[in-house]
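This week, think about what follows.
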Amino acid sequence: MTRIVHDLPKPGIFYGWWILVASAAALALVSGVTFWSPTLYVGPLENDFGWSRTEVTAGYSIAFLIMGLTGPLVGRWVDVNGARWVLMTGGVLVGASFMLVATTSSLWQWYLYLSINTAFRQLILFIPLQSLVSRWFLRRRGFALGVLAAASAIGGLVIVPVLRLIIDTFGWEASFVVTGIAIATVFVPFGLFIVRESPAEMNIYPDGEAPVLQELASPAPPEGVSLATAMRTPIFWMLTLALGLFFYSFFGFMVHQVPYYESVGVSRSVAAMLVAIMAGVTILARLVIGAFADRIDRVERLAMTLCAVLMAGMVTLLLNSTFAGISVFLVLFILGSGAGPVLQPLLFMRTFGISHYGAIIGASIVVQTAAMTFSPVVAGVIFDATGAYDWVLAMLLCTFAVSLLLFYLASRLPHPAWEGPAVELAPASGPR
């Protein structure tokens, strides 16, 4: 039995767009100062303290391992209580801890203060923001997540040049102080005045569109499986390992990107500009891939394609490290890595649903971050031992290849929740 529902969306701009724009702006800031900028501090810290590249990058490895361990706690907090207080608390704690990092004067302090800082970063990164935006969008969820991913690239385009200027003019300590102030100034008002946990809180529907048909003879599709159920499935571990290796290679190169360019004769200022250019072009790639992802049934196939493109990029650098080779590599790297922040949420939401997304992605991030933890330091050890990045590039090439294989195996496994996006017939419920 089917009946027509004549309920219409409320007039005016859908509030979910304001949520998306504000979330994108906040993520642009935090991504710029946490994800894109670490490569800027490697040289200055080496010069000021005489530390080796391995010692400097080991700080990022240790810190990111700690950040990964906080993922399940943050994910569970978001699932139960919503994103508002997570984001506000994170803004205060991350801002204050950046100022603590600015007081570093010895290696043990670099490790400790950076670890404290990254332990709080999950509070203002992808887990709460992706969960928040996904509750406001259903049919356009891929596009909305693509906008978030593009925003993180905008952070690289805008923030990296600013931080480089601050570092060159006032020193790396001033850069950390400015970063801390900016984080607190943005995230506390964002959570306090803008965040609404779900459309149901405002008595509207996801995407701002009321449903047209309701099937009374059958119940609404499930919102998702629990963390315990997800972890008992082979596809959870297949996706987790595949993404872990994907980000292992991606993050390993990102931390060493500027030092690599310098090792093949590119000046530091030009190297920083290349990072900003890559971030800028990535914006378009992420928007296109996010919109395209709404039209495909298995995101694993998209992930396989991206791994193949990244492998081609690594081969290009191994064969040609001239400016021409670097230019070709940047095109391939942008195409291959652009969808990274889109892949993760879409893979897990399509596979396990939305209701326990925070807890599930948090558990997966523990494994993924463990892989990312070792990447910068392993690359640093290889460089210190060989004096070049050739074997580092070969390692990253092989890791992308294994990731591709795991994505292929995952694409052959069934989804525990449903195939493709579910159709929600009522306003999405708030946090549980």
